[in-house]
């Protein structure tokens, strides 16, 4: 992943191996807005800050 956010849209592809079946989470700290897909499933959008509560 780049150190700083791009000013234009981009697609990033990566791999990971889950050694055990446990609860996991996606940490988007330091990233901009985007969508997360894993194994072709759209897990949803993410934003860098929380919206109004």
Automatic annotation (TrEMBL):
SUPFAM superfamilies xref list: Galactose-binding domain-like
Keywords noted in UniProt: Glycosidase, Hydrolase
Any one Gene Ontology molecular-function term assigned to this protein's record: hydrolase activity, acting on glycosyl bonds
One Pfam family recorded for the sequence: BetaGal_gal-bd
Transmembrane segments: none
Residue intervals of the Beta-galactosidase galactose-binding domain: 9-53
Keyword DNA-binding carried by entry: no
UniProt name for this protein: Beta-galactosidase
Species whose genome carries this gene: Acrobeloides nanus
């Amino acid at each position: 992943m780049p150190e700083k956010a791009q000013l234009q849209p981009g697609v990033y592809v990566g791999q990971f191996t889950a050694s055990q079946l446990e609860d996991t989470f996606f940490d988007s700290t330091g990233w901009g807005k985007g969508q997360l897909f894993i194994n072709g499933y759209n897990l949803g959008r993410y934003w860098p800050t929380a919206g109004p509560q």
